[in-house]
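Dear colleagues,

As part of the handover before I leave the project, I'm documenting each prediction I ran so the next person doesn't have to rerun anything. This entry is a single chain, and its sequence is reproduced below.
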Amino acid sequence: MITFDEAFDIVINSAKGQTTERVTLENAVGRILAEDATADMDMPPFNKSAVDGYACKRSDIGEAMEVVEVIAAGRRPVNAISEGQCSQIMTGAMIPEGADTVIMVEDTEKADGNKIRFTGRKTSANICYTAEDIHAGQLVLKKGTLLRPQELAILATFGFAKPVVYKKPVVGVISTGDELVESDVNPAISQIRNSNSTQTIAQIITAGAEFRYFGIARDTEADTREKIGAALSNTDIVILTGGVSMGEFDYVPKVLQDLGITIRFKSIAVQPGRPTVFGVKEHKYIFGLPGNPVSSFVQFELLVKPLIHKLMGHDYQPSMITLPMGETYTRKKTTRKTLMPVYFKDGLVFPVEYHGSAHIHAFVAAQGILAIEIGKTTLLKGELVDVRQI
């Protein structure tokens, strides 16, 4: 049995063989950028007005000024501004030569003839200057960046209509056990519906990968071998839930070895999730997760999701929050790292009522996972704790 930190390092350091593809911007959200992106132009590309108003010389705003033209956004100014002149200008339009200030339209009034007068007490320049945001040639997004809507706006701004991104890994999903039936089946007295596959598939999608479902492997070595073999041939990562402990019908470890999978670990000092198996074969990765849904859920979040991101060129960083405990929590067994569901209330952290690794309903109320390290028995009320948000 190894520590969780050791297991995490083994999983992440196993990631190899990332491949790339070009996608349209519309299909790039949630993907990982596979090349640096540099600006092909200054931004703004010219001095532009930050407001609707009148472009003029600051030295003239105490006098009535003649309006020589109207400058709309997207139109190049025709006239330079001389003393006593101004141009009506729209937000985003190019500043005409000779102007150094834009006075806001609400700070003006009509004067005699084709003139306006500044009525405000003072004004800023109200100009967005060339390259004040970005210089041409400047790095705007680094390789490995997760592309959110705001990053896509940057790519669009600088002409990356088809960015190069890492390919999504395909994750195969298999549940094991004669006791399982699919969710649309009315279970017999000794059966339960297969919730693990639904949960795992949803986690895969949320992590940004693609999935293929290979069904339920029955408790025979032949069926287990057939489904794992099919998954290995058609996916990058294989996730099995159940069949990885020491029961008489738990064939997964033997089948993995027979299929040439190198088992890197098969037991972690965590609760829940101790009987978690991880193996590799060339550029294929396989996880055997415990059959209890909480164990499966937690170990996916802590081990599988970071690997998915790593294969897409991204170092996954979970959202963490530090808050005080709202009550004292004590545990009896301290030989394993405990991963406990918690919720937040009034800026404090409270344990969710939790009956063990089969109690997935507890995670409906959970907002985070709190880790209690090996050897620690008590978390005191008011003690600051780090919570991984889910």
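The helical segments are 4-13, 149-157, 196-206, 221-234, 252-258, 293-311, 362-365. Residues 168 and 209 are 5 Å apart (CA to CA).

All the best with the project,
I.
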